[in-house]
């Protein structure tokens, strides 16, 4: 949206329909209800012989919870996983952790 422009509905064109089909794994509109996506402006959409701006869809980014010592249960689970596996791969697949907290966790596990 641009300041001063009237709000218009987004028409689901063939390209964006294909993207939704790819995201949901289904060609049926009924299966697309409630699916979260990111809408962004692509400046290089072809319209005839011209390049124009167009709306495109991509899968919504899923943010992971952040691990910190204040989250006692998660912190203790992360320490147990580190002691078990010798690394934080399993933890990092589910949570984000700052470099300082990662060092702290590794120090606590080696003590």
Q: Mean pLDDT across all residues, rounded?
A: 92
So what's the overall shape?
A: elongated
Order of helices and strands: HEEEHHEH
Q: Which spans of ≥5 residues are poorly predicted at pLDDT below 50?
A: none
Counting copies of identical and different chains, the oligomeric state is single chain
Strand content: 15-25%
Query: Could you estimate the helical fraction of the residues in percent?
Result: 25-40%
Structural class: alpha+beta
Radius of gyration: 22 Å
Largest beta sheet: strand ordering: 1-2
Distance between the termini: 54 Å
Query: What profile does the largest beta sheet have?
Result: 2 strands, antiparallel
User: What's the helix count?
Assistant: 4
Number of strands: 4
Taken together, the total number of domains comes to 2
Summarize the structure.
The protein has helices at 14-24, 72-85, 89-92, 99-110; strands at 37-47, 50-59, 66-67, 96-97.
Structure description:
The protein is of the alpha+beta class. The chain has 2 domains: 14-59, no CATH class; 66-110. It is 37% helix and 23% strand. It is built from 4 helices and 4 strands, in the order H-E-E-E-H-H-E-H. A two-stranded antiparallel ribbon has the order 1-2. Strand 1 and strand 2 (50-59) form a beta hairpin. The longest helix is centred in the C-terminal third of the chain and has 14 residues, at 72-85. The chain starts with 13 loop residues before the first helix and ends with a helix.
């Amino acid at each position: 949206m641009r300041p001063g422009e009237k709000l218009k509905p987004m028409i689901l064109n063939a390209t964006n329909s294909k993207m939704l089909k790819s995201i949901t794994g289904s060609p049926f509109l009924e299966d697309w209800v409630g699916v979260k996506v990111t809408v962004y402006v692509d400046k290089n959409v072809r319209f005839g012989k011209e390049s124009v701006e167009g709306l495109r869809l991509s899968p919504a980014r899923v943010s992971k919870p952040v691990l910190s010592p204040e989250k006692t249960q998660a912190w203790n689970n992360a320490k147990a996983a580190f002691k078990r596996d010798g690394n934080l791969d399993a933890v990092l697949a589910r949570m984000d952790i700052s470099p300082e907290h990662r060092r702290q966790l590794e120090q606590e596990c080696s003590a």
